[in-house]
Specification:
With 88 residues, the chain is mainly beta. 0% of the residues lie in helices and 59% in strands. The chain is built from no helices and 7 strands. The chain has strands at residues 4-11, 14-21, 26-31, 40-47, 58-65, 70-75, 80-87. The strands form 2 sheets. Strands 1-2-7-4-5 form a 5-stranded antiparallel β-sheet, with no helix packed on it. Strands 3-6 form a two-stranded antiparallel sheet. It is globular and about 40 Å long. The N and C termini lie far apart (33 Å).
């Protein structure tokens, strides 16, 4: 956990994924194969374009994903992300 961490937790049919990094910016690719069958509505909070200079800068987006999806997430230095996956 000295460089970065990504963790996931399931509650019922829904999943919650979070990650954070040290003072190095980085990209991670999240493989959603653990989801199993079905579609999920993802609400994704990531660092915004200026998050490296202004910590309150973030981006929120929504998309539908399945177990075949792979999400590429960028984290600013000292930043992170949060994702909520609700089964449809």
């Amino acid at each position: 956990m000295g460089e970065y961490i990504v963790t996931a937790r399931r509650i019922g049919n829904n999943w919650y994924i979070g990650g954070m990094t040290n003072w190095d910016s980085r990209e991670v690719i999240l493989d959603m194969s653990f989801l199993g069958d079905g579609n999920y509505a993802a609400t994704i909070f990531t660092d915004g374009v200026n998050a490296g200079k202004q910590a309150s800068d973030y981006k929120k987006e929504k998309q539908d994903i399945t177990s075949l999806s792979k999400l590429k997430v960028s984290m600013a230095a000292g930043g992170g992300f949060a994702i909520s996956l609700e089964k449809l």
